[in-house]
Amino acid sequence: GTIRLSLEEKNLGIFTSFLSQYIGRFGDEGLDLNGPVYNNRKVPDLDSEFVPGYTIVNIGCTKEFTNLWSVAVLCTIGVNNLLNAMNLRSLPNLLGRQFSFSIQYKV
To answer: Phi then psi for 59, rounded to 5 degrees?
Structure first.
């Protein structure tokens, strides 16, 4: 399941976002040791052959600063994978908690 919330306050120049995503457990062929095979694929049939479910939470906030000449600077901070969900064996692309910061200048 996925929940996405965002809030924009134009008078203050603030934009915030929140994303939460739950990924349920799933089978991993690399963990399958007893080897029942169906259509050349291993079939997970034991609890030890499943990767447990996990939740990803991402949050971010952007603040826009403007001056008298309509020049704007946007500062953004964010955190991906706030709960630090990791499973390096089955999910090597899930690197853990990541922080970000950016500054954007627009004329």
So the answer is: -135, 150
Q: What is the pLDDT of residues 74-88, one digit of tens each?
A: 999 999 999 999 988
The CA distance from 78 to 61, in Å, is 6
Closest CA to 98 of 57, 63, 52, 62: 57
Strand partners, 77: 61, 101
CA-angle at 106, arms to 98 and 102, nearest 5°: 10
Instruction: Say what the pTM is.
Output: 0.79
Cβ–Cβ < 8 Å for 26, 51: yes
DSSP 46: S
Three-state DSSP class for residue 89: coil
For residue 80, count other CB atoms closer than 10 A to its CB. Answer: 16
Task: Say which DSSP state 90 is in.
Answer: T
